[in-house]
Amino acid sequence: MSRKDDFFRSINAGYACKGDFIVLGGAMLDGEAIADAHVKIPLKTLNRHGLIAGATGTGKTKTLQVLAEQLSLKGIPSLVMDVKGDLSGLARPGQENDFIRNRHGKINLPYSTMGFPVELLTISEQNGVRLRATVSEFGPVLFSRILDLNDIQGGIMSVIFKYCDDNRLALIDLKDIRKVIQYLTGEGKDELEKEYGAMSTASTGVILRKIIELEQQGAERFFGEESFDTSDLMRRDSGGNGYINIIRLTDIQDKPKLFSTFMLSLLAEVYNTMPEKGDVPKPELVIFIDEAHLIFSQASKVLLEQIETIVKLIRSKGVGVYFITQNPMDVPASVLAQLGLKVQHALRAFTAKDRKDIKLTAENFPISDYYRTEEAITSLGTGEALVTALNEKGVPTPLAVTMVRAPMSRMDILTPEEIDSINRSSQLVTKYSRVVDPESAAEMLEKKIRDAEERRKEMETRRDYEKDYRRSTGRRTGTVTRRRTTTHPVVKVLTSATFIRGVMGILTKAMKK
Fold first, then answer.
1. For the chain, which terminal residue's Cβ has fewer other Cβ atoms within 10 angstroms, N or C?
2. For the domain bounded by 3-131+234-431, which CATH number is listed?
3. Alpha carbons 218 and 264: distance in angstroms, whole number
4. Computed from CA positions of residues 203, 207, 212, 217, in that sequence, does the dihedral angle turn out positive or negative?
């Protein structure tokens, strides 16, 4: 048996599937695609998370596009972070050409073009389904993260959230948290110190300034009601295809804290609201986080632990999380260890650090009899990738240099007119276009302050009245003291009679004895 035949048998045995699966592409050996040696990913392992990595221009975005398409065809909805604005084309059919026909001929996969059901979501100024979340849903840890607070300031934020929970003060938007801080450092200072201890005014001043900075970044559009219902991410169209929900983030690339904190909040919300699923034949939702380094680059130890915990546990809810980044070293080792599917596009070795990263990346893949992994990583062409997944038993598949299939949808962005057309036909755009401003902490504290002010004025008025009354009565009778010590003649008579009756009673009892 030739080396090529042996490789063919190895790939087909390693990627064999009894249940349903998607095909990522065809395996390659010595730079040549091997027909019918298909790299298959079992649907039941797609909630075991994954990584798509590679240098700029090597095909990461197209691989993400292919995965989202194949998931949709299997009825699996997805949520895609579109930081660079490359993915709106999923909504429209692609265009077949000779290059694509030749590519698919080499790996013996049929090719057709089609558009997919897409929702365009936004957390900023762009048109689309408006995503909002309340300050309460973020919680003190994530909210402290977005403000870049130190440990002491973060502790104060935890106290503020606790006070609001205990007093049923809803934190909906940024004006709520601002009003609470102003109240607790002013009218409510004694109330706070009695129950929770004192807060440094210097620290609360810093927090207030950072909240104002956040408002200036446009975050007030994100915090508020109506809060997004994560169940709206898991819809299917009339043909049973899963919706691809694209969050357009092109205008917040310079606001990584807003993006990363939003993403963590969304993961936590999905985890907290979805029921336990256990082992399922296919995931309920797959989340693709592009530019993943924006999440990890400045994360504190506490946040990294939170991310690791969510990634570890969310798969039991039937959710897969896929990180897309240029360098796999951007992802902490504790998170990388949780990722079952690894798709590694080419890396470039320009510096000593690059060579070190390539060596470490190669060590994350299974040992192969057919490739020198370090060399393969630097020699991959555009649209080619090193792939290893989990088979249906959860065992890593053999390493395969893979020619990734071409996307079926448009490999370009939509025009403004096409985007408007999608938004006009969206039920979710209408649902979340309403801005709701319920009574929350700001309004409740304003009422509390007004009531306290009215009581204070009422007490001052009463004291002034009593003071004036004493003065006026003192002038008519000479002095207040004289009036109090002077007894009316009738009272004198009654008092004397009472005294005499008492004395006579005592004498009478004594005489009887």
1. C
2. 3.40.50.300
3. 19
4. positive
